[in-house]
Amino acid sequence: MKVLILGGAGMVGRNLALRLVADGALGGQPVEELTLFDVVPADVQGSGRTRVVAKTGDISDRATVDALVAERPEVIFHLAAVVSGEAEADFDKGYRINLDGTRHLFEAIRALGDYHPRVVYTSSIAVFGAPFPEAIGDEFLTAPMTSYGTQKMIGELLLNDYSRRGIFDGVGIRLPTIVVRPGKPNKAASGFFSGIIREPLAGMDALLPVDDDVMHWVASPASATGFLLHAATMDTAPLGARRCLTMPGLAITVGEMVAALGEVAGPEAVARIRREPDQTIRGIVAGWPRNFDAARAAEFGFTADASFQDIIRAHIRDTAAAG
Amino acid sequence: MKVLILGGAGMVGRNLALRLVADGALGGQPVEELTLFDVVPADVQGSGRTRVVAKTGDISDRATVDALVAERPEVIFHLAAVVSGEAEADFDKGYRINLDGTRHLFEAIRALGDYHPRVVYTSSIAVFGAPFPEAIGDEFLTAPMTSYGTQKMIGELLLNDYSRRGIFDGVGIRLPTIVVRPGKPNKAASGFFSGIIREPLAGMDALLPVDDDVMHWVASPASATGFLLHAATMDTAPLGARRCLTMPGLAITVGEMVAALGEVAGPEAVARIRREPDQTIRGIVAGWPRNFDAARAAEFGFTADASFQDIIRAHIRDTAAAG
Ligand SMILES: NC(=O)c1ccc[n+]([C@@H]2O[C@H](COP(=O)([O-])OP(=O)(O)OC[C@H]3O[C@@H](n4cnc5c(N)ncnc54)[C@H](O)[C@@H]3O)[C@@H](O)[C@H]2O)c1
Ligand SMILES: NC(=O)c1ccc[n+]([C@@H]2O[C@H](COP(=O)([O-])OP(=O)(O)OC[C@H]3O[C@@H](n4cnc5c(N)ncnc54)[C@H](O)[C@@H]3O)[C@@H](O)[C@H]2O)c1
């Protein structure tokens, strides 16, 4: 089969690509060709079984998307997006890529008429906005408080409608904040959740812009890959009209994260964290969800991490493996 | 002040225009100019106080919308839409008018930069989809089951985001099904709710395609006008980030509607109703909301009809007045 990842050079896309090449298969079917599309070139190597094709371009150009879709991949992972901080800072860019780009993909598929792939779309818990109940259930309203959340939610609505009409077979997964994000920080306002673990483990200082009692919903990069694979292969019939699911995660406070870091890596690591309250980030984070009851995702077989300590240990292993 | 109604020749728009001309004012301020924009020419007469300008065009043409917005009306009522049945039958037309047209309006306002009007947007209870709780509260998820509902919900999300950013001052009102709709039936799948009252009162037969126990959420044309005027003049600060409200209405079954018709107009009227089950309409209606707890709208001062008998009597008066 052919698989296409839009945003294939990004953090989540790259991990997914590595896993697909390692498995050489998806849902029991061999993956002969894996196309990684992104504005920047992806650096994943193929294998004897799986040919990897890296392509560059912009999903906000309809013709580019038409050309990708013309290859009729059986599964499309749509991860290409401008993240929260950037979509908030650049109104036009956020709408052009996150909304128009998503529509281009959906319309390109519709234009073919007889092509109905599985489409896995990465939404975000940013589709929710305060005030919240103690734990956000699957029937709680989506009321985004950022342009990014708005764009992600519009993508969800379109995915549901196009799927309902049989244009494609969509699954939307609302990712928790992925922690520990490897590599360099990106422009997401949630970056510090990873920074306070990643930087100290690398012997560097990290800034903590919010209070210790800030609670958030997180999952590891490996869990994100697991969600995507499951979304690509699950039976979608029982989802009915509601094809977008809040993914499982851990509800954890910043204080608990720091304590877990101390447990796994010792007090020297914790000492690397510098508390520098930032009113802007505090304000943004105050509107973010803290805790979920992701019952539907659990019912449909999605699973996440057992503990934050495990997440930290996995990050240490991954970093060592990456050299 | 200047007021603009997009969809000003439609049922709700025309009633609103008549009321604005009769009042000659909105929120205590004189309305000097009222522009009625629609694909078909509006036929509302102005008064000495209020000049009425009827313009024709299509909101899916950006330049047309730019020209309307260049007049900088203080209040814009955005009612222009392709209704549910048509948006379901014609995918492209629904998205072009209901989604792209709405975006054109919002973007035309943003393009001016220093112009921040009140924008009142008519959403619909079609943003909700089954399964439902006994009564749908203000925190229940929106999960549309039609393309029309999807497009209306996307408009809500955009309205919230543009308002949050201070581009305009938006209020979205989710109208119940407006009953009794005067004049000819339109292409809305909900048309029969009005037909079973309007046709018998006019001495004509009416088809009833669903069962008597179908419950629905309705409000009168006069209530719709009242909602719009209130949305145009209310203080929006207490709405916070959630600027779209389910309007109050009556939860009533088809059987109760028919009984009310009998009470007001006698058994001859009821005898005009012919039960002809239609599987397609039944299927559509099965996914529609039945009952709401519209507490937030009530809290913000929106009020609706006291009884269905009153709604029928108002329709009889309006029809007589219209000759
Ligand atoms: N990482 C998280 O915590 C998180 C949480 C919720 C949702 N998500 C979503 O998951 C997806 C992947 O996240 P990530 O962490 O890998 O983000 P990322 O920023 O690392 O990857 C996104 C990729 O999309 C690419 N991209 C941006 N604009 C593009 C365009 N116009 N055309 C083609 N490619 C474009 C970027 O170059 C980048 O490589 C995104 O859609 C993101 O919004 C991520
Ligand atoms: N009547 C109801 O029961 C009800 C319920 C919920 C929501 N709404 C919404 O309220 C609004 C008004 O409803 P209505 O009952 O008056 O509908 P309507 O169909 O009578 O009026 C809509 C008007 O919009 C005009 N229009 C359509 N496409 C246009 C375009 N491209 N450019 C300019 N004008 C265009 C139509 O010509 C029509 O006159 C609509 O947005 C509708 O979706 C109505």
UniProtKB/TrEMBL annotation, chains A, B:
Q: Which residues form the NAD-dependent epimerase/dehydratase domain?
A: 3-204
Q: Which Pfam families match?
A: Epimerase
Keyword Cell wall biogenesis/degradation assigned: no
Establish whether keyword Hydrolase is in the entry.
Answer: no
Q: Quote the Gene3D superfamilies the UniProt record gives.
A: NAD(P)-binding Rossmann-like Domain, UDP-galactose 4-epimerase, domain 1
Can you tell me which residues the record assigns to a coiled coil? none
User: InterPro entries under this entry?
Assistant: DenD, Epimerase_deHydtase, NAD(P)-bd_dom_sf
Q: Which UniProt keywords apply?
A: Carbohydrate metabolism, NADP
Q: Which domain of life is it from?
A: Bacteria
Record-level Gene Ontology MF annotations:
oxidoreductase activity
The membrane spanning regions, by residue number, are none
Q: Supply the name of the protein.
A: NAD-dependent epimerase
